[in-house]
């Protein structure tokens, strides 16, 4: 039987991507006590990299919001893989959003709303979180956005 969050994903017509396998010396999720730490998730969709380039140069802020949303879908996929049941998510506590952007780009918070809005859509009140949104000069594989997460779990 599907849980509440799986039912919510179905209602929103959201299909989670396959959880990406690490490409370096780290694990996707570390669980310590009642906290899950999700490693930075990038703009990969079932093994294919999307949104490679700089925001404010190759992508608009609106396009980058979709990139951030994809990172969020990957975070949820990693949580499902690690926890088995997304109903174990009690609270999305903090998101760190990194935007690969042109030097004069200043709309990082707007880009970050792509993942923030997704977390609230999926987890409701429990999806409201603290957040950092920063611009960086480059990200791995030249992806436009990377997001990591700290999540309270049951």
From TrEMBL:
<feature type="domain" description="Endoribonuclease L-PSP/chorismate mutase-like">
    <location>
        <begin position="8"/>
        <end position="147"/>
    </location>
</feature>
<protein>
    <submittedName>
        <fullName>Enamine deaminase RidA (YjgF/YER057c/UK114 family)</fullName>
    </submittedName>
</protein>
<dbReference type="InterPro" id="IPR013813">
    <property type="entry name" value="Endoribo_LPSP/chorism_mut-like"/>
</dbReference>
<dbReference type="Pfam" id="PF14588">
    <property type="entry name" value="YjgF_endoribonc"/>
</dbReference>
<dbReference type="InterPro" id="IPR035959">
    <property type="entry name" value="RutC-like_sf"/>
</dbReference>
């Amino acid at each position: 039987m599907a849980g509440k969050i799986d039912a919510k994903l179905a209602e929103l017509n959201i299909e989670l991507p396959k959880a990406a396998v690490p490409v370096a010396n780290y694990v996707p999720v570390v669980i310590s006590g009642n906290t899950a730490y999700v490693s930075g998730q990038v703009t990969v969709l079932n093994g294919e990299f999307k949104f490679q380039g700089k925001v404010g140069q190759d992508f608009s802020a609106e396009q980058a919001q979709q990139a951030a949303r994809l990172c969020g879908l990957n975070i949820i996929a990693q949580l499902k893989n690690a926890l088995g049941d997304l109903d174990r998510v009690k609270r999305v506590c903090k998101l760190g959003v990194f935007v690969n952007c042109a030097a004069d780009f200043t709309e990082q918070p707007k880009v970050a709303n792509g993942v923030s809005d997704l977390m609230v859509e999926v987890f409701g009140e429990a999806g409201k979180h603290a957040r950092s949104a920063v611009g960086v000069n480059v990200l791995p594989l030249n992806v436009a956005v990377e997001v990591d997460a700290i999540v309270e779990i049951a």
